[in-house]
Amino acid sequence: MSTQLPPLSLYIHLPWCVRKCPYCDFNSHQADRFEANGKLPEDAYLAQLLADLDADLPYVAGRAIQTAFIGGGTPSLMSEDFYYRLMDALREKLTWADNAEITMEANPGTFEQEKFRHFRQAGINRLSIGIQSFQPNLLKTLGRIHNRDEAIQAVDKSRVAGFDNINLDLMHGLPDQSLDMALEDLSLAIELNPEHLSWYQLTIEPNTEFYRRPPTLPEDNTLWGIQDAGQALLTQHGYAQYEVSANAKENRRAAHNLNYWRFGDYIGIGAGAHGKITLANGEIFRTRKTRHPNHYLNNLPEALVIKDAIEQADLPLEFMMNRLRLFETFELQDYQRFTYQSVPDALIKACEIALKQGLLEADEWKNQRVTTTEKGKLFLNELLELFLP
């Protein structure tokens, strides 16, 4: 059994957006429905975030925070003052690793761009800008409120503000999108020279407007063509694919998401935030904070959280569902390091079956170091089924 707890990250959720996008299934709420005198309840939300964190501090167990991610919603809607106060409080309450990666999601709108310099001064050192597309018709279909020029300006202004680590979120497989349209979007994103590109296919999720009124999506052959040509273009320009939908320049992979996918721990605070915690006794559980902002704001911290224990029988699948998203070699002993449990025989046998089926490969199986093959990437669901309890 491992004697060291997994690395620890922090996730902070801000649940408000200007408008709910028709494809979005995240916990986001239209801001003007919660405003008083044109302002969001920033003071109350900050106080509740910190009370929420105080309740979770025992789970830190002496560990330094390696990464933090401020997601939403649209976190950049909040004021500069909100982030100065938040970051000051986080520095007081937590120990931080040297050069900890601290990411904020931001939208390209002009209003948010004016705040970038303050976000950087507050201590946020990585920006993730939600562009999704540069094409006016597709932006309108997606419900986005920025335009092509604002998207480009957002990257320029983030550089002026001092950000040297930027991710662009870009979608493909959009309604009525052709191969040429998808590659035009991707080419422009590459020209903006971000350190990281999250390039992922639109999926229709329940509880979204697109689910209730499905748009016309490209045919499967077009989707395959977009994926193949897009990945070739990314590779050509130095963006290596290291996860299903993540591409990065050398040494610029997202440290926060890597911790998720390697089955590290993370505390989640804010309305609807999720967490995953390992205790010194070997217990592993996930946390979910209450979703609705009003309920979150008006209850004591102990009423905000739901805990779901991960049963030992489910651990192999839970671990591999995360770990196999990453296209890198890993040792099966990582299972022991991140779960506090010995590597079960069933996990080893499942890997041996996957090796025979060509879904995994190993240079030296005696060292139990495996990598997902190209076939395994294409048939990831079939690969994961081998690890079902």
From TrEMBL:
User: What does the record give as cofactor?
Assistant: [4Fe-4S] cluster
Q: Where is the Radical SAM core domain?
A: 2-243
Q: What does the UniProt entry say about where the protein is found?
A: Cytoplasm
Entry coiled-coil feature ranges:
none
Question: Molecular function (GO) terms listed?
Answer: 4 iron, 4 sulfur cluster binding; coproporphyrinogen oxidase activity; metal ion binding
Q: Which Pfam families does the protein's record reference?
A: Radical_SAM
Matching SMART domains, A to Z? Elp3
Name the keywords, alphabetized: 4Fe-4S, Chaperone, Cytoplasm, Heme, Iron, Iron-sulfur, Metal-binding, S-adenosyl-L-methionine
Q: Name one GO cellular component term.
A: cytoplasm
What are the recorded Gene Ontology BP terms? porphyrin-containing compound biosynthetic process
Role played:
Probably acts as a heme chaperone, transferring heme to an unknown acceptor. Binds one molecule of heme per monomer, possibly covalently. Binds 1 [4Fe-4S] cluster. The cluster is coordinated with 3 cysteines and an exchangeable S-adenosyl-L-methionine.
Family under the similarity heading = Belongs to the anaerobic coproporphyrinogen-III oxidase family. HemW subfamily.
Q: PANTHER family annotated for this entry?
A: COPROPORPHYRINIGEN III OXIDASE, RADICAL S-ADENOSYL METHIONINE DOMAIN-CONTAINING PROTEIN 1, MITOCHONDRIAL
Name of the featured protein:
Heme chaperone HemW
Species of origin reads Marinomonas profundi
